[in-house]
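Quick log. Single chain, no ligands specified.
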Amino acid sequence: MRDKLIANFRNYEHYDRDIRDASAIAELFKRHGRNIDAIVHTASQPSHDWAARDPQTDFAVNANGTLNLLEAAKQFSPQAPFIFTSTNKVYGDTPNRLPLRELAKRWEIEPGHEYEPGISETMSIDSSKHSLFGVSKAAADLLVQEYGRYFEMPTVVFRGGCLTGPGHAGTELQGFLSYLMICAVSGRPYRVLGYKGKQVRDNIHSFDLVEAFVQFIRAPHIGEVYNIGGSRQCNCSILEAIDLCEEISGRKLTWRYEGTNRVGDHIWWISDVRKFQNHYPGWKFRYGLREILEEIHSAVADQAPHL
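-> predicted structure:
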């Protein structure tokens, strides 16, 4: 991806920096200063399992690294919109306490519940099991809000569900739609972990997410928080995703079920994006679930000999 950016964008410059290195980050921001128009912070240690094995590094990357970026932005480019990609895992396992009904291929929230359109930013992040990854991201999440409100900087937290697209390099424990299609195309076996395979995720295409970033950059707020994801527009259970992957790929997926769910895994997550849509009515979804999976299938099929 870096090589493509260098080849296709004449003004692109790449700097190999570790966000844990405060002096290196400060030097980079000082060099560009008020010429910085926007900051999009997507650097992260993204794995629950890895965080449990090495919590020091996980926290240093996710929390301290974010602090370094915020401090450099405050010092050298406080006017630049600061976008942080957080996660729905900051809510911990609180979503698993929602009243859910078991349907044939998915769990679904009880009709009429306040979160039926999706889970909003009103859900508490307290008194729940987050995973250590969720904790380090929650610390970063709060830092971004605080720098916005305390220092009146244009910061925003996007709490994402499943972010995906044809460039997604899915692995078994990260990027489930991408990895599921990889398994369907390559014949690799897939493991379904817990909740009868009926756990529900919403999925947002990277294009739609970046369009949300653009909307914020054009008209930033101070210390704002948005849940962002596929919402009711684009969501599925694992069983439903398996069916669609088989239909699109024309291949039968080999999979097995294991009854133990992953620690911190949500049974049902659908994002309520209405707050963002109210603030930015020009933002609309372009991609649905089938369109996302068809693009992923095309990308995976092109790579099939190397899978």
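The first strand starts at residue 39 and ends at 41.
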